[in-house]
Amino acid sequence: MLRLLLAAALVVSLAGGSAQAARCGGDFNSFIAGMAAEAQAAGVSASVTSAALGGVAPDGAVLAFDRRQRHTFNKSFEQYVSTRVGPGRINGGRALLQRHAALLSRIEQQFGVPRYILVAIWGLESDFGKGDTGKLPVIRTLATLAHDCRRTDLFQGELLAALKIVQRGDLPLRDLIGAYAGEIGQTQFLPSSYIKYGVDFDGDGHVDLRHSVPDVLASTANLLHMSGFKMGQPYGEGTPNFEAMREWNRAVVYRKTIGYFADRLMGQ
C-alpha cells in the first residue's frame, strides 16, 4: 500500500526534532554523510549507520515509481473493489480466520479491533503475506526519496526510523526489504509506523512484521486502536471508526474496500 499519508504527513525524527539536518539535492554522498550524523545524534550506533549507509547509491527506479503512483486511487469504489476483493481472496481470508482463531481472539481482547477488519487489511496489503511485499533494500529506497527534495522531511524521518529498526534488533539489515516507498512487511508499515505501533506479540523479543503473523496482526490492531477504533461500533463511511482508519489510509475508496471485505468475510 502506498498510503496517501505520504503526501501530507509531518514526520518527527527519533531525536525529537524535525529531520532537516541533511540538505536535499546536491551531492548524494554529502547528503548521506549528513544523514549518518543525524542518525547517530538520534542514538543509532556508528556501526549500524556505517553498515547501512556505506556505499548506498540512489535508485532511479524508485524515483520513477514515486512520480507515477500519485493517481493510484482515482478509480471509483466499484471499479477498485472489483479488482481487490473476489471469491478466492474471500475464501482464503475465511480459512485464515479459522486457522488463527485463538490468536485473533487474543488480539481482539487486547486491542479492541475486530478480526474481520484485520484479516481484510492483511489480504489487501499482501494477499495474507503470500503476495508481493516488496523486494527493494529499504535503506536505499528511503535514502533515494530523502535526497529528492519533493518530500525530504518525510523521508528523512522514515530513513531514521528504518535505521532504528536495525538498531533495536527487530530486523537485520539484510532482511530490511520493502516496497517502493519503504513500506515493510505483510501489512506494509512505513518505518515510522513500525517504530510507533509495532508489537512483539509472539514474545521473541523482536517486532518482526515480515515473518511473524502474531506481530503483523497485533501491530495492525495496535495502530487502529491508538487511532481511536472502537470494537462493536460501525465502520462505514461517516463513522468514527471510518475516520480512525484514516491513519491506515487516507483514501476513502481504500477504507470503503476494507469495510466491504470485512463484511464479506463475516458472510454479509
What does the model show?
The chain is globular. It has a two-stranded antiparallel sheet with strand order 1-2. It contains 13 helices and two strands, in the order αααααααβααβαααα. It has helices at about 30-40, 45-55, 60-70, 75-85, 85-100, 100-110, 115-125, 140-145, 150-165, 190-195, 215-225, 240-245, 250-265, and strands at about 135, 175-180. The chain has about 270 residues and is mainly alpha-helical.
Write the layout of secondary structure elements.
Blueprint: H1 28-41, H2 46-53, H3 60-68, H4 77-84, H5 87-99, H6 101-111, H7 115-126, E1 136-137, H8 138-147, H9 152-167, E2 177-178, H10 191-197, H11 213-226, H12 240-244, H13 252-266
Antiparallel strand pairs: 1-2
Helix pairs in contact: 1-2, 4-13, 5-7, 5-13, 6-11, 7-13, 8-9, 9-10, 10-11
Q: What is the typical, i.e. mean, pLDDT? A: 91
So how many helices? 13
Major beta-sheet overview: 2 strands, antiparallel
**Structural class of the helix and strand makeup?**
mainly alpha
Give the tally of β-strands.
2
Strand order of the largest sheet: 1-2
Query: Helices and strands, in N-to-C order?
Result: HHHHHHHEHHEHHHH
